Amino acid sequence: MDYFPIFCQLKDKPCLLVGGGEIAERKARLLMEAGASVSVIAPSFTGQFMQWHAEHKLSCITGVFTADHLSGKWLVIAATDSEQVNQQVFQSATEKQIFCNVVDSPEQASFIMPSVIDRSPIVVAISSGGKAPVLARILREKIEQQLPNYLGVLAQLAGTLREQIKQRFSSMNARRYFWEQFFADKSLQSEIEAQRSDGIEQRISALLSENQQPQGSVVLVGAGPGDAGLMTIKGLQQCQQADVVVYDRLVSDEVMGLVRRDAQRIYVGKQAGFHCVPQDEINQILIKEATAGKRVVRLKGGDPFIFGRGSEELEALIEHHIPFSVIPGITAASGCATYAGIPLTHRDYAQSVRFITGHGKGLNEAEWQCIAQKNQTLVFYMGLSKAQYIQQMLLSQNMCATMPIAIIEKGTLATQKVVVGQLRQLTEMAETMESPALIIVGEVVKLNEKLQWFQSKSAK
Ligand code: SAH
Questions:
Q1: Claim to verify: residue 304 and residue 263 sit in the same structural domain
Q2: Quick one: 310 and 353 in the same domain?
Q3: Binding-site positions for S-adenosyl-L-methionine
Q4: With the C-alpha atoms ordered 89, 91, 96, 100, is the resulting torsion angle positive or negative?
Q5: Ligand 1 pocket: which residues have CB below 6 Å?
Q6: Are 108 and 115 in contact (CB under 8 A)?
Q7: Which of 185, 227, 243, 248 is catalytic?
Q8: Which of 15, 59, 261, 436 could form a disulfide with 36 if both were Cys (CB 3.0 to 4.6 A apart)?
Q9: Are residues 227 and 174 in the same domain?
Q10: Are 185 and 236 contained in the same domain?
Q11: Per-residue pLDDT tens digits for 268-279
């Protein structure tokens, strides 16, 4: 960071502006908006400056800058059209250790002025450190569009309510919960936009009575296969509001990086050499945290309803009358196949796709017969350690030994690894791969040669 961003309290503080032209006018306006006590020194002034002077908004001193003008000043801006004068101002200010901005010359300044979006008391400042002012402006425009006009009033209101809310809600959680409801409340926003003070008051009273006690809940969120960008917007919003996040092994570090920083994180996955936390214990954690009034996010890899035991956790919540909701995620089959350039269906090769678990209850002969049918794609989850068995069963149902297959390890992550071969090589291929990995069997796999697009770091 080349510049340290701070917001200065300039109210009634003496500040000096050197220059009386149009560029200086812009700086004067900003200083006045911040409530500074502005003196302007210049040999001559624009009409605007003269008017401000007459209105006592600032004070114009006709003359040439000398170091004496710096005495008692907190901040200086050099905005003349003479580089030499600007430099002299900067040097004198630096000697006296007064922060000085030089217009259009960031390399010569001890502070620079950012691009500002003013929704006071909300102020957003953007700077490119003088390297790319146009980019800073583009960003400013983008952010400006995102910030509604009522934001300032909303923040102002929040300021006046702060003490009252502190008295009303003793726990920090309850206060945070109230503020989140307050800032998200659409009715309050429309009352502010319509400038109806009665309506605003009524809405605030309603919010206060509605939010006495935050009710705990659980949201089952699908985190997707690994790449954090693949999580849904709803999932992300939940992760950023959660009090507690219960997660397991398949949730990537990247995704955990998006969780609210202050949220409590409870890991229930497998530790090296140990087993996972038993399902019943996970259920108990969810029940305990939600009953304590917390907003719990149960974060699961992929989609919680695809080989995720999500429904078992929900049944436990239902028994305890705990409110819940579910946000789907991109399942490994979809994410990994896409990042490996393998379409799961294709008009010529596969009219259907099957998601099959390599674990759990075994499949019978008749089921394997269906699985080995032509014109479909098979996706085996948790199949790595059962690769040999899967291979035998498919071959015993007369699936062609040259059927294309792929194994995708850590799909969608930068460390993704993809190997492609034929059914006859499945066992050996599986031995070179690590968990989590997905096995895809079907003609569609051969499209990978043409369609692969994702360059993982470990690409072969
Ligand atoms: N609910 C998850 C699946 C859980 S079962 C989902 O919808 O994706 C766990 C299995 O999913 C793993 O054994 C592996 O086969 C597969 N899997 C999950 N994430 C994966 C990834 N990033 N790469 C490869 N396979 C993955």
A1: yes
A2: no
A3: 225, 301-303, 306, 331-332, 382, 411
A4: positive
A5: 225-226, 250, 300-303, 306-308, 331-332, 336, 381-382, 408, 410-412, 435-438
A6: no
A7: 248
A8: 15
A9: no
A10: no
A11: 986 655 667 888
With respect to residue 459, please indicate whether it lies within any of the assigned structural domains. no
pLDDT in tens, 137-190: 899 989 988 888 889 999 999 999 999 998 888 888 788 888 888 998 888 998
Pick the more confident residue, 55 or 271. Answer: 55
Considering the domain boundaries, does residue 90 fall inside one?
A: yes
The pTM for the full model equals 0.66
- Distance (Å, rounded) from C-alpha 289 to C-alpha 184? 24
Counted domains in the chain: 4
**Element of type H or E holding 253:** helix 253-256
Known catalytic membership, residue 118: no
Q: Same domain, yes or no, for 409 and 428? A: yes
Q: What is the DSSP letter of 362?
A: P
CATH number at residue 172: 1.10.8.210
CATH label of the domain that carries residue 69: 3.40.50.720
Beta bridge partners, 118, equal 123
Write out the binding residues: 22-23, 43-44, 225, 301-303, 306, 331-332, 382, 411
Give yes or no: 227 in active site. Answer: no
Indicate which residue of 57, 142, 270, 374 is catalytic. 270
Q: Which domain holds residue 426?
A: 333-451
Residue 342 CB contacts under 8 Å (≥ 6 apart), including other chains: 406, 440, 444, 445, 447, 448, 451
Kind of pairing, strands 264-267 and 295-300? unpaired
